[in-house]
Amino acid sequence: MSLTRDDLRAAVSVGTITEAQAASILSLSDARRGARENLSGLDEPFELFKGFNEIFIVVGLTILYAGWAGLTGLSVLFVENPGAQMMLYAGFSMAAVAGLAAYFTLKRRMIAPSIALSIMFAISAMQFGSSLGDVLSNQTPTVWAIASGFTGAWLFLYWAIFRVPFTLLLVAISVFGTTFTLTLVSGASLMDARQMFLLSGTGPFSILTILLGFIGLAIALWFDMSDPHRVTRRAQNGFWLHIIAAPAIVNTVALTLFESDTTVSLLLLTAFLALMAIFAIVIDRRSFLVAAIGYVVALAITVIEGNAFLVILMLGAGLVFLGARWEAMRRAIMSALPEFPGKSSLPPYAKENS
Fold it and tell me: How many alpha carbons fall within 13 Å on the CB side of residue 59?
């Protein structure tokens, strides 16, 4: 009987071995049996909870947090200047959530409660930051810049301590929020939410969106390539960053081409989506493609009128085909590609037998 990757992931999740030890064991195993020549295609690991007890605990944590939020919210209704009091309550909430995370995340290694606690910590940090912003300024963009910046900084510290991969998604959202609000503070105006994605629109927002998307993608790839076998949380960190990076990149290009509404622009959009599909296959990230296509479907419904469902039908058929033939297509593409920097750090692919 031999150990599988699932066995190693389970051992890491319960703390039996460390991530570095799991990666070393797998690397040694693959080196001994020539993994890159003989392994079959690997699925993309994804896990939101390990059992219904985790869901049970999440429900309890949610009710507990909602009750606390309701009590503290009602208690400040009749306070003339509630800013300081709200900061006190929010600070207590952050400390309490961190205490719960020390048990459910660090000790029990639970997935769903850890994600829920990350969200609760983000809400509490945002509450503290917005209250602090109200005390320091009466300008709405400045208040939100302070709130999002404060939230992002504390979320990054939270991730550094508890290493919950989902927290990086919240950090990335905070970075987007801080960047956009600081841009508003500097004098730029945002008249329409689509300006954040429309490259032909006015203002710097769409440029910032796609730039931050590429930065997020680069960090996600760094995590992925440091754990090509995807047995540690480094790969999970990459997973959640792909979820935010893909829409920022694809949605910006897609909306810009949709707005052109010409045959050439639709052909360019088709070519761009095909390129993104190949890229997702090469890096072996279905999550990148699903997140990107999901926003394209939403765009098709809101922007295209008569042909929206035709576009959705074609996208759906393409996803089903890719899902059914992913491993074979990745084997063919990776075998055909010449050697390039980082190719050996991507997830293994099985070469066809000669």
Answer: 5
First to last CA, the chain: 29
Whole-model pTM? 0.82
Separation between Cα atoms, residue 186 and residue 109, nearest integer Å: 43
Give tens-digit pLDDT for 158-209: 999 999 999 999 999 999 999 999 988 887 777 666 667 677 666 688 888 8
- Can you read off the two tokens belonging to residue 160? 């550094």
CA–CA distance, 218 with 269 (Å, rounded to integer): 23
Question: Distance between CA atoms of 120 and 133, rounded to whole angstroms?
Answer: 20
CB-based contact 110:104 (threshold 8 Å): yes
Which of 348, 243, 241 has the alpha carbon at shortest distance from 5?
A: 348
CB atoms within 10 A of CB 161: 14
In the chain, where the domains are located: 5-248
Per the CB < 8 A criterion, the answer to whether 261 and 186 are in contact is no
Q: Are 201 and 145 in contact (CB under 8 A)?
A: no
Distances (CA, A) of 148 to 51, 114, 122, 160: 33, 21, 10, 18
194: DSSP letter: G
Q: Is 16 exposed, middle or buried (0-12, 13-18, 19+ CB in 10 A)?
A: exposed
